[in-house]
């Protein structure tokens, strides 16, 4: 059980690095669609190679049914689409508010997995989730330094609410993959998730008229680093989900991983970007850490 928690914390730390890369993309005015598309293609190629090596070493594996392939491809599509919607909502609305709304989607898989697959409620688990959500809201709604323009705040909030629903559905599907009748013993899910995200990125690029495929050296470096992060995070994510499912605690994966990602990114912002560590930021980080501590207490009972 402790190994599952450690894997989940590692995924959260890896996800926090994505925030650093996205900040660089915005800072240098690079195309997030170009970088995301090539990142997914590189990740897909690497993971397909690893999958072929894994399969070649086995005498026989069950052929995955079509519904399994479609389920994971669709999960990858809506997960990527939700992320792009959330990023777009920050353009129109106050980024702290829209970001907090979108990231609160982690409560959806917690409730869905608990209800659908009858994972037991417990005071530790429920209180831990409340603490994590409270910490995220504290960080997301903290007062920004300087002024932040919001050209169409209501439109930004609406997009963030849609992203909340879409990301919540995607996270629920990823969590539910551990309960499917077909057992993924060779690591097909990360490959399918990456493949499903590519059409979502291309659709967003087309809808928002993001033209051209130019890449600077800086953009190519970000693609390389994001691809390494993406491959590692996807593989560890499903290992953590499967191990948590075996302990009847699959529903806590996204609260722990997302909460860790947000708390660690807040630390990156203070250390690397010299942002001020005010009381609200410190309080939000402590609330998230307290929630994770309650999950760990749950495992030791």
Protein described:
- The protein has 301 residues and is mainly alpha-helical.
- It contains eleven helices and no strands.
- Helix content is 77%, strand content 0%.
- Helix 1 packs across helix 10 (253-272).
- The longest helix has 30 residues, at 217-246.
- It starts with a helix and ends with a helix.
- The chain has helices at residues 2-27, 32-56, 66-92, 95-103, 107-116, 123-140, 153-176, 188-207, 217-246, 253-272, 279-300.
- The model has no long low-confidence stretch (mean pLDDT 82).
- It has one domain.
Overall tally of domains: 1
- Which range best describes the helical content: under 10%, 10-25%, 25-40%, 40-55%, 55-70% or over 70%? over 70%
> Rg, please?
19 Å
Give a short account of the largest sheet.
Answer: none
Number of strands: 0
Mean pLDDT: 82
Distance between the termini: 11 Å
The sequence of SSEs as H and E is: HHHHHHHHHHH
Question: What descriptors fit this protein?
Answer:
301 residues; mainly alpha; 11 helices; single chain
Secondary structure layout:
Blueprint: H1 2-27, H2 32-56, H3 66-92, H4 95-103, H5 107-116, H6 123-140, H7 153-176, H8 188-207, H9 217-246, H10 253-272, H11 279-300
Short note summarizing the structure:
By secondary structure, the protein is an all-alpha fold. The protein is 77% helix and 0% strand. It has one domain (2-300).
């Amino acid at each position: 059980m402790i190994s599952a928690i450690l894997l989940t914390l590692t995924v959260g730390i890896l996800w926090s690095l994505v925030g650093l890369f996205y900040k660089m993309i915005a800072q240098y005015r690079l195309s997030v669609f170009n970088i995301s598309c090539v990142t997914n293609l590189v990740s897909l190629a690497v993971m397909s190679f690893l999958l072929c090596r894994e399969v070649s070493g086995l005498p026989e594996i069950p052929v995955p049914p079509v519904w399994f392939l479609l389920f994971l491809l669709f999960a990858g599509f809506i997960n990527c689409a939700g992320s792009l919607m959330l990023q777009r909502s920050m353009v129109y609305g106050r980024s702290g508010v829209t970001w907090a709304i979108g990231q609160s989607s982690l409560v959806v898989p917690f409730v869905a997995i608990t209800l659908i697959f009858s994972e037991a409620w417990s005071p530790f688990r429920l209180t831990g989730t409340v603490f994590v959500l409270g910490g995220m809201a504290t960080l997301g709604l903290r007062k920004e330094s300087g002024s932040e323009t919001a050209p169409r705040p209501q439109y930004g909030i609406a997009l963030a609410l849609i992203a909340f629903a879409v990301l919540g559905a995607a996270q629920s599907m990823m969590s539910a993959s551990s309960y499917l009748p077909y057992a993924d013993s060779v690591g097909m899910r990360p490959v399918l998730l990456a493949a499903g995200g590519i059409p979502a990125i291309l659709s967003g690029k087309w809808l928002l008229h993001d033209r051209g495929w130019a890449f600077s050296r800086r953009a190519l470096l970000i693609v390389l680093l994001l691809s390494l992060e993406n491959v590692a995070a996807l593989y560890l994510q499903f290992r953590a989900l499967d191990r948590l499912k075996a302990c009847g605690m699959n529903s806590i994966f996204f609260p722990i991983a997302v909460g860790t990602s947000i708390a660690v990114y807040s630390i990156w912002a203070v250390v690397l970007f010299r942002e001020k560590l005010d009381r609200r930021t410190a309080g939000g980080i402590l609330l998230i850490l307290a929630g994770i501590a309650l999950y760990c207490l749950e495992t030791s009972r």
